Fold:
Amino acid sequence: MSTHNDHSDAVLRVLADGQFHSGEHLARQIGVSRSAVWKQVKALAGLGLEVFRVPGKGYRLAAPLELLDAARIRAGLAPAHRARLGALHVLHVVDSTSTWLAAHAPVAPAACLAEMQTAGRGRRGRHWVSPFAANLYLSCVWQFEELPPGFTALGMAAAIAAARALHACGARNVAVKWPNDLVAGGAKLGGILVDVQGEPSGGLRAVIGVGINVRMPAQAAPGIDQPWTDLVSQLNGVVPGRNALAASLLDELFRALECFGAQGFAAFGDDWRALDQVAGRTVVLQQHDQRISGTALGVDRDGALLLETGGETRRFVSGDISLRVQA
Structure:
């Protein structure tokens, strides 16, 4: 669970405005000694946050932060979703929001967000770069009473929901890349990871993890193995509110999951085609040790990729497959 202590949390909440605060002021606000303040400031640096110390002025963060707040996120939800959502957890530091939620949310629907992940997961076992308070790391657990048609495309429906939330915050250039990436200008903006667990009743419990680059710090970028972008770049330097974005994302996920449970992926086909960054382009699929190149022809009713290769059309279901668009 969180490895962040209460004092460093309190120091961070004071410094989050990006203004200078003296050591004396911080000590008085938090109820600790000035030497304890210095230790907590050093702890923030350990999270990758840049803190300036100027004699006579005090401490300030290199940039203001909007910390995640469960009450603000819940208040931003549509009333029906606010009433339906069970627990909403906001953690400081966690291994993975999806892993944590799977272990700590017996009742669905529930959600978990974190300021930082130490073992964030992408598809195919990749590490998801998750610096502190920079991006959005959100997981939602959902119960399906029976298996919807096209269930393997659940991540694609979630990607459409995330794209809708991003469009609503002004990022109109966001598209989707099969099977469940969010892209803008050909660069990766976010991604979806779905973990599924069967239930004795025959139903299914799914944990849907969403990672979105909001304001990716340059020092974290070397850990990313493909072209990437963030919302600040897409919004011409405007930093979107992470709490409002989280609420919008949860609203769109709830709508999509309710629809998916009733109708499966077929209900999302038109939306996918409108957002599809891959259709009509030359792509390379990596499946285990096999590389397959061809022209993407879109997806079928169940979300499978249709690929024209070697004079025939082949069908690929989302799984242990990586897709790259050829330049």
The mean pLDDT is 88. The two ends are 42 Å apart (CA to CA). Residues 73 and 243 are 5 Å apart (CA to CA). The longest strand covers residues 187-198.
